[in-house]
Design brief:
This protein has 242 residues and is mainly beta. Helix content is 8%, strand content 61%. The strands form two sheets. Strands 3, 4, 5, 6, 7, 8, 9, 10, 11 and 12 form a ten-stranded antiparallel beta sheet that branches. A two-stranded antiparallel sheet has the order 1-2. The N terminus is likely disordered. Keywords: Signal. This is Outer membrane protein beta-barrel domain-containing protein. It comes from Wandonia haliotis.
Length: 242
C-alpha cells in the first residue's frame, strides 16, 4: 500500500513537468478548447500596474563657472515614491522576452530641520518614460524573470511641497512647481529580478523588483549642481495573456 501511495505522489509531481515539455510551447500555451480545437497562444502579455520605490540621489557641485556649495542640501534624505506603468511583453524565444511600455515616473528627496523650528520639504521629479527591456524567463505557470534595459524619459516638472512655521506658531504648507533649468531628456539604466505567475490561461500577476540609475544630470549644465537619482522599486500588477 505504501508503494502504491508513493507511486501516486511521484506521478502527481512529475505530471506537470512532463506535460510542460510536450510540443514547442509550454503547457499553458497549447491546449484543446471545449469545441475540440487546438489552441496555440502566443504567450504575449499586456500588463499594467504600479511601482512603489525608495528613491534617493547623488548631489555634487557642478565644476566650473556655475559651481556653488551644496550647503543644507547635503542633509536631504531618500524616501518612498509611487510610479505607474502599462506595457507589452512579446516572446522573441521561449526564454527571451522583449518588454516595452510607457510609465509615469516619480522620484525625489526629503529635507527636515532639527531643533524647535519646523521646516520640511519634499522634492518630487515627474517624468514620462519609455521602458525598453530584454528579459530571460524560465518556467510554465510560474516564471522566473531576469531583465536589463534602459528607460528614456522626458521631464515634466519638479514639485516642491514645503511646510514651515510662521510668526503665529502655526504650520503653513506651500506647493511650488518648477519647469525651468532641467534637462528635458534623460535616461535610466535598469536591472530586474522577479517572477510572473499566470494563474489562468488569460490572466496573470507579476512582482519584479528592479534597480535603476539615472545616467545624466537632472539639471542643465548652467545649474550649480549635478543631480542624479537612483531608485529601488518593485514593479507589480496584472497581465492579460494572448
Amino acid at each position: 500500500m505504501k508503494r502504491i501511495f508513493s507511486l501516486l505522489v511521484l506521478v502527481t509531481f512529475l505530471n506537470p513537468v512532463v506535460f510542460s515539455q510536450e510540443g514547442d510551447a509550454d503547457s499553458m500555451m497549447v491546449y484543446t478548447n471545449k469545441k475540440g480545437k487546438l489552441i496555440r497562444k502566443s504567450g504575449d502579455e499586456l500588463y499594467f500596474g504600479f511601482t512603489p520605490g525608495f528613491a534617493n540621489r547623488t548631489l555634487k557641485e557642478n565644476p566650473g563657472l556655475f559651481s556653488a556649495p551644496i550647503g543644507e542640501r547635503e542633509n536631504e534624505t531618500g524616501g518612498w515614491f509611487y510610479s505607474f506603468h502599462i506595457g507589452y511583453r512579446t516572446n522573441l524565444h521561449k526564454h527571451i522576452v522583449l518588454d516595452l511600455g510607457v510609465e509615469f515616473n516619480r522620484n525625489g528627496e526629503f529635507y527636515e530641520t532639527g531643533g524647535d523650528s519646523v521646516y520640511t520639504y519634499k522634492n518630487t521629479y515627474h517624468y514620462i518614460g519609455i521602458p525598453l527591456n530584454l528579459a530571460f524567463q524560465y518556467g510554465d505557470r510560474f516564471k522566473l524573470h531576469v531583465g536589463a534595459g534602459v528607460v528614456p524619459k522626458m521631464f515634466l516638472s519638479q514639485v516642491t511641497n514645503e511646510e514651515r512655521e510662521n510668526e503665529f506658531g502655526t504650520t503653513e504648507a506651500i506647493r511650488t512647481k518648477y519647469k525651468d533649468n532641467f534637462n528635458f531628456f534623460n535616461i535610466d539604466a535598469v536591472v530586474s529580478l522577479g517572477f510572473r505567475w499566470n494563474f489562468s490561461r488569460n490572466v496573470g500577476i507579476y512582482a519584479i523588483p528592479e534597480m535603476r540609475w539615472q545616467l545624466a544630470n537632472t539639471y542643465q549644465k548652467q545649474w550649480p549642481y549635478v543631480h542624479k537619482s537612483y531608485v529601488f522599486g518593485i514593479k507589480a500588477g496584472v497581465s492579460v495573456l494572448f
